[in-house]
Amino acid sequence: MSESSISSNAPGAPIVLHEALSASGRRWRWVRKHPTLILGLALLLIVAGLAIAAPWIATHNPININPLQRMKPPSADHYFGTDALGRDVFSRVVWGGRVSLVVAIVVALIATAVGVVLGLLAGFVRWADAIIMRIMDGMMAIPDILLAIALMAVIRASLTTVIIAIAIPQVPRVVRLVRSLALTLREQLYVEAAHAVGTRLPVILRRHVLPNMVTPLVVQATFIAATAVLTEAVLSFLGVGVPAQVPSWGNMMADARNYVAVAFYTILYPGILLAITVLAINLMGDGLRDALDPRLTNQR
């Protein structure tokens, strides 16, 4: 009798096989229940993969100007054609993805971190509540894009200043979310019990409050990231974003807007990548909300 037949006839083999099939079935059912999350994550991974691999897959230097190659249609040498200055559109598109993804990630992290601190302060320190929330209300009274343009008008244009200008208008949304959660959580019995036994406030926040805020904060951060990508493109399109020599989707569309009639591809490809990225992040946010919200999970 062979070793394989012995192992297959062993008493534990059917149990192990059944457990493996059950785990595989559970994973497949989870995927079927959350197609939005899977689709958004897949699209985002494709965009991120292109951006990360830009130094290796870009066929030309994205900032090199070649007047002899201007307005060339898509070809084997220039996959997406060339723009009005003879720069390779494909190379600029994949390098531009780096700018958008960096802005999205950093803005989401900054806005969430600052918003959590201010929101917890407003939710647990009564005298600070009125001051913080009136400032947040004043900031929310100004449209995000106008506030970002105003900030860019007073500071020097760079990627860092664009990130700051986009992150500041997003802070009030996180503050209001965290404050509302804090007002609810501070009335819970386990928080009151921790207060009663003399637990310090920082310990209560770290052990009992912040863990219960992770799910809504993760979902909110995804929507902030999508807004950041779109806002960066708008600022660059208006000429108040990242410097013109930096390849970004907004800069590319701004440069191509006067040549749509003769070279539509110069604005088509960065526009498609921008739309796919924003859609992917929003789909992922919706999917995370559905997957992490126990009320929605129990309804299935």
TrEMBL record:
It is found in: Cell membrane. GO terms for cellular component: plasma membrane. This is Glutathione transport system permease protein GsiD. Belongs to the binding-protein-dependent transport system permease family. GO terms for biological process: transmembrane transport. Residues 101-285 form the ABC transmembrane type-1 domain. InterPro entries: BP-dependent_transpt_permease, MetI-like, MetI-like_sf, OppC_N. The lineage of its organism: Bacteria, Pseudomonadati, Pseudomonadota, Betaproteobacteria, Burkholderiales. Keywords: Cell membrane, Membrane, Transmembrane, Transmembrane helix, Transport. PANTHER family: ABC TRANSPORTER PERMEASE PROTEIN (PTHR43386:SF6), OLIGOPEPTIDE TRANSPORT SYSTEM PERMEASE PROTEIN APPC (PTHR43386). Pfam families: BPD_transp_1, OppC_N. It is a multi-pass membrane protein. The chain crosses the membrane at residues 36-58, 101-125, 145-168, 217-242, 262-285.
